[in-house]
Q: What sequence folds into this?
């Protein structure tokens, strides 16, 4: 029975340790994800946004200029599915919020009925020790003191190349950028995705992150350092379930 219970408990213990992939990486650095088409990922979803009504393209006779072109010669900037564009992320966020409250309230209420159609004489017989002149007397005191402070300073500077995965009907481009970097036994993962306008792409084929709509920026990783900084799964479970 003990051996059977140990066998039943072994999968749970292995799952609690993290995963079998983490056990397979013991003694060597984390393996990088192979390069692949981002549209083939299980989590990939084509993006749909409100589009304006299509406008017919007007053609002028005896003219080399085409309406909608950004240059007379061929534009070398990203414009089609599969083209590469560099996304520049430069975020500097600082916040300092302080809040303090102090509230005090005192209350004192009393009520009596000295004369009530002669019924005040029968009150002591119904409630021994009670007098009609002091039927009800209440006193309350309430005090509240609270202080709070938030201080945050963040700076993220990232430059990585992405691939255009969609060209929306209005000409906007859907970009997906991923990058992995391994230093010793720590694997860093960078991910940026969003929608950009072709005219926001600079002449050097770069685009700023603040020109990107529906931007999703992720900077994290996994490895020995992240394992130490991440609480154990049992501790996370108790933090969620314990009411105190």
A:
């Amino acid at each position: 029975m003990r051996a059977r219970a140990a066998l039943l408990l072994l999968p749970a213990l292995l799952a609690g340790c993290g995963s079998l992939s983490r056990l397979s990486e013991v003694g060597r650095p984390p393996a990088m994800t192979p390069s692949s088409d981002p549209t083939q990922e299980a989590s990939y979803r084509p993006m749909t946004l409100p589009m304006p009504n299509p406008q017919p393209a007007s053609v002028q006779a005896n003219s080399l200029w085409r309406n909608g072109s950004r240059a007379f010669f061929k534009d070398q900037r990203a414009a089609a599915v599969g083209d590469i564009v560099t996304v520049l992320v430069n975020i500097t966020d600082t916040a300092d919020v302080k809040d303090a409250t102090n509230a005090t309230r005192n209350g004192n209420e009393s009520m009596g009925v000295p004369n009530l159609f002669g019924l005040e004489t029968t009150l002591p017989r119904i409630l021994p020790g009670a007098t009609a002149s002091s039927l009800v007397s209440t006193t309350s005191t309430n005090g509240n003191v609270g202080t709070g402070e938030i201080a945050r300073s963040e700076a993220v500077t990232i430059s990585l190349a992405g691939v255009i995965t969609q060209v929306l009907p209005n000409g906007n481009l859907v970009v997906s950028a991923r990058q992995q970097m391994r230093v010793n036994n720590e694997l860093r993962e960078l991910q940026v995705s969003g929608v950009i306008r072709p005219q926001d792409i600079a002449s050097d084929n770069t685009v700023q992150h603040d020109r990107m709509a529906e931007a999703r920026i992720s900077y994290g990783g996994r490895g020995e350092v992240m394992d130490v900084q991440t609480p154990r799964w049992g501790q996370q479970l108790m933090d969620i379930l314990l009411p105190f």
